[in-house]
Design goal:
The chain is an all-alpha fold. The chain has helices at about 1-10, 20-30, 35-50, 55-65, 70-80, 85-95, 100-110, 115-125, 130-140, 150-160, 165-175, 180-190. It is elongated. The mean pLDDT is about 90.
């Protein structure tokens, strides 16, 4: 408990928001028994600002590697958290572990925050084929989004998600001048 408190202090008292320290805490705390480690991760995430992409990425990578038996419950709680960054972390980890339920995916695809929807698209395309119907609906809903990150997530979901007609949609987007479609299109074209 003392070591965990010192590690948390090390992260919180660092000058600036150091995502590498967040990774270190989450990586270590995700291996400790009991709830305290995961609660420390949550406190640090909120302190550092779970809306910063570097912090989100660090936490997602560290927690993806965590063997903690309570991690699933924490991530399920984060899926409903008021802080969008924690919802993004939860989606990335659950998606990477192929543990995102259809119900959670559906809620995330309807989230008012574009970055949460983008994360849900990424998580959904890694999931089972039963996610395809929800993904297709979200792709149609957001394919013309003004948010570049969301539109890019849509294009990657088309490329990687194994959806029928994806190559035609990507080609049409590229021909219409959408530069974000070029790399996903290259991936699809390379598969042919």
């Amino acid at each position: 408990a003392v070591a965990l408190a010192e590690l948390e202090r090390f992260v919180v008292e660092a000058p600036g928001h150091d995502a590498s320290r967040a990774f270190a805490l989450a990586f270590i705390a995700g291996r400790l028994e009991g709830r305290e480690g995961l609660l420390a991760v949550e406190r640090v995430a909120l302190h550092l600002g779970a809306d910063e992409e570097a912090v989100i990425l660090a936490l997602a990578h560290a927690l993806h590697l965590s063997p903690h038996p309570g991690l699933g419950a924490l991530l399920e709680r984060w899926l409903r958290h008021h802080e969008p960054g924690l919802r993004v972390v939860a989606l990335r980890v659950l998606g990477g572990r192929k543990a995102l339920s259809e119900q959670a995916l559906g809620r995330a695809l309807e989230d008012p925050e574009a970055r949460v929807v983008a994360a849900a698209l990424g998580a959904g395309m890694l999931g089972p084929p039963t996610h395809t119907v929800q993904l297709r609906g979200a792709i149609l809903q957001h394919e013309k989004s003004e948010d570049a990150a969301l539109r890019q997530a849509v294009l990657w979901a088309l490329a990687v998600g194994g959806l029928a007609g994806a190559d035609e949609q990507l080609l049409a987007a590229a021909r219409a001048g959408d530069e974000l479609a070029l790399l996903p299109l290259a991936l699809v074209a390379d598969e042919d």
